[in-house]
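User: I've been going back and forth on whether these two constructs are worth ordering. Before I decide, could you fold them both?

Assistant: Sure. I'll take them in the order you sent them. The first construct and its structure tokens:
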Amino acid sequence: MKKKFKKTAMSLLLTASLVCGLSACSTAKDTPKQESGGAESSSQGGAAGETEQTTASGDKKTFSYWLPIHAFTAKAMTDHNDHPAAKRLEEQTGVFVEYINPPVGQELEQMNLLLASGDNLPDLMRFNFKQKYRGGVSAAVADGVLLDATKLIEENAPNFMAFINSDEDLRRGAYTDDGILAYFGSIIPAEEMRGLPFQGPMVNKTLLDKAGLDIPETIADWEEMLAAFKEMGVRIPFSFGCDNKFAGLYNAFSGAYGVPAGSRFMDENGTAKFGPMQEGYKEFLTLFHKWYQNGWLDPDFLSKVQNKEVRNDFDAGEMGAGLLHISSVIRLPLVSVQHGKEEMEAVPAPYPVLKEGDQTHFRHYVTNFNQTPCYISADAEDPLTVIKWLDYLYSPEGIQEISWGTMGDERYEDTYYVDEEGKKKQTEFVTNNPNGLSPEEVMRQYLLRDTAMVWDWEMQSLMYQDERQQKGWSVWTDHTDFDYVMPDEMTMTADENDEFSKIMGDVETYVNEMSAKFIMGIAPLDDYDKFIKTLESMKIGRATEIQQAALDRYFAR
């Protein structure tokens, strides 16, 4: 009989707003620490679940899986049990999975309700306990919510462990401070993908050419360009997705002064520092205050959201420059015409520096462990079945199923083919879907992408074959790394988390509000010393000590 987990767990989930205090508050979002690993995965684990557990029919293993539905998947179904690829995966693994799907957008609320109910937990849960549970994975294990399956995983998940053991940073990040294998089930991007920037400075080159200027590299170059845009009558010379917390800058511009933007900590050669306490942060705010006064910075920057207003303004040809996704180099020429403008060209610009030859240490990048991981609950009756099933998804066969789908199975539409050079390519059913679905929608609705465990570069690279996109990667990495970004995989103890959260809840609000006031001139920059003293009185020094302790433990793993 399954045991009940401790009801005290219901009070330990954190709201998403507190997650940012632990790491660097990156998006997909922001930014964590990275590695350059890959691995030759092995399928020696065989079919998943070689145990005695069976279904009612007596011929298959089974377990339950709490799995959120991606918004694109939800356009076609509200239940993964009805997903066409679920049957294929069952045939390949010999395991029947009962999917439990929380309503889209209510994942945190539903998990809180599940924990509060005291009922038996599903066997496997795709939910970020590391960031959203007080004390992280170790505390969830101690509270009887999650199973410490470290030894079982190490001994029975050869494909997953091949990835983890292929790189020191991957291995360090996979374990907690006390040695629990925390990230089993997390998506691991292919080696070629890790560390790549997908967001960065972007300029409307059509407007730049009219101004007679080169692509900007230094802060001075940017000021010359923005002044020209303003004089030319460009409605919004520069904007970014601030969303009240400066996340959409990806630390560009502030990085030129050696600090992150907003209420964030940094790792300067192993020393934890709070960005706004550094002299460079005042210089960054002084720069943006000047831009705001001169009309170069969008007057409505504070409320702008990256993938809504900012992208729309840029696509419409109303914005000269900003921080955007690499896809803008393809999208702008098409969409600008749709908005009744001339065909415009977009071009990536380097992350700005103070003077040529400088190296900055903040930028956007793809993390080692990308997106929400899976965890085995302490209530799981047959964890070995769960482990072997998950490990199959890290095998070559599992990666192909989740990344590419089917070919030659008359029961399903072909989603890929192999060309004359032996390379896999997506079929027109994916790239030019007869039902008008985008490629991403097709992949979510016909492949079980919601439970992906490896981002396959051969497939991912199909979306980035355009030379303009590849040039963007080169431009954004030329003299910029992410060495000063706090490691996303570092963790705090439960007591540290309590103390840190109490401090940073007020600090984050204060920093973001004052940063906006300094930029907009509501508060004079002459008051910056008062700002620093207020942070000191709010115990930012103690919060920094906690971050330092967590950072030290991370590097000691």
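The second construct, handled the same way:
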Amino acid sequence: MTTMRKTYAEHRQDLTARYPQGVTPGGVAIDDIIQLKLQNTFNTHLDIAREMAVVMRADMAAYDADASQFTQSLGCWSGFHAQQMIKSVKRLRGTTKGAYVYLSGWMVAGLRNRFGHLPDQSMHEKTSVVDLIEEIYVSLRQADEVAINDLFKALKTARDAGDQVAEQAAIKAIDTFETHVVPIIADIDAGFGNEHATYLLAKEMIKAGACCLQIENQVSDAKQCGHQDGKVTVPREDFIEKLRACRLAFEELGVDEGVIVARTDSLGAGLTQKVPVSQGAGDLAAEYIKWLKTEAITAENPLRDGEIAIMKDGAFVKPVRMANGLFAFQDGTGRARVIEDCIANLTQGGADLLWIETDTPNVDEIASMVAEVRKAVPNAKLTYNNSPSFNWTLNLRKQVRAQWIAEGKIHEDSYPDGNVLMSAEYDATDLGREADDRLARFQVDISARAGVFHNLITLPTFHLTAKSVDELSRGYFGDQRMQAYVNSVQREEIRRGVSAVKHQHEVGSDLGDTFKEMVGGERALKAGGHANTMNQFAAE
């Protein structure tokens, strides 16, 4: 937590002053009031956005001082996925520091909208993105409630036993409790319309709790997944207006430290929707137009009715226009356009972080582009998509093979080229082991060498859910039946300490029992008695 909240003792002092008898006139114990106040870790989701923005800014400053302090997230398509991820991080590290949640527009389109399973083309309802942010924070806050309730149960047990040491330990645990609420980087796609539509949606996302918005420079009505063909970018001044729309939304709602991630898809985008109007040499429009593919106007290729011409290098030329009216960029200019996009987004659009969508995971490629950007903006930082769209095994094995050949370490015939390198027969080879070592180091390397502050995987829980359900189904509907469930799910939950193994507790049955006791005392009808089968897991 980043803001100062009252301790258990401070709450008790305040409430004792109001209720010297230790209970309200209606018979509510002040300790029960304290518990509910502390369980309610945030009053509103706008408060979450404000506080998590401060967390992100502090993390960015820490990264500027030490590039090993990068942050990470996994893309989650439900509140439960996000909750379990953060609980796992807390079990592993003892803290949630450096862990965020990524909300992918791809997964909202594919899994979380009323229109069914859709491609990543901004066809899903805008409200579905907002709803998922809200759901994620409801789940993370419930994790707080369940955990703090357990701490108060420990406090009550210690007091009932007269164990003052245990009592003080329980109070200390309550006062030092770290929330499960972490920053969300929320995908607003290409803004779902014009700059005003972007502003309106941004406000709703922020009110739902988003402290960080990621927006891309594609055309809203022609938006494609970053790893598919047919991407169409907008002129830089158009995109900058949307960056400003997001900033205005943050400022209006008092999220002064709100973070904007400006994503460029120019590396893989060969088209633009329109030719912007240049007001003078070197302006944003001129720097965008210079990359258009053009044809000379000659007697053999005259300017015909309905065609357009632009002045380029002192002569009129025809920009190449596709049958659908889109204009083509010169081949091989994506890298240069990316660098110019990034500089403009930081210096003129006020973006805080960059996102460069690439077609392969190559540290050298990203580092070389960032080095160019940093000549203009020395502290430029990135969010990088460690995408499941990459064949990581094949890509890294190819990179190792090419490097070793160039260095003379192996001959071209030492390992085959092409997709055959994906074969399991290469897993235990020197090349396979080196590729796996580089895979394990990838995020460390790209953060140290390429300015990547935040490493994320966009769609891991989509793939994980598909794989896990397939794994269970193969055994359960095959010969193993219940053994498949126990071996692949329950034993692993128990042995790893995954709290969801006690599923009733995980969704708040103990919270309900506690509240019934608060208002009903001995009359409370509780679910957690001796007949509760969750007691079978009590020793774990």
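Notes on the second construct follow. Residues 7-39 form one domain. The chain has a mean pLDDT of 91.
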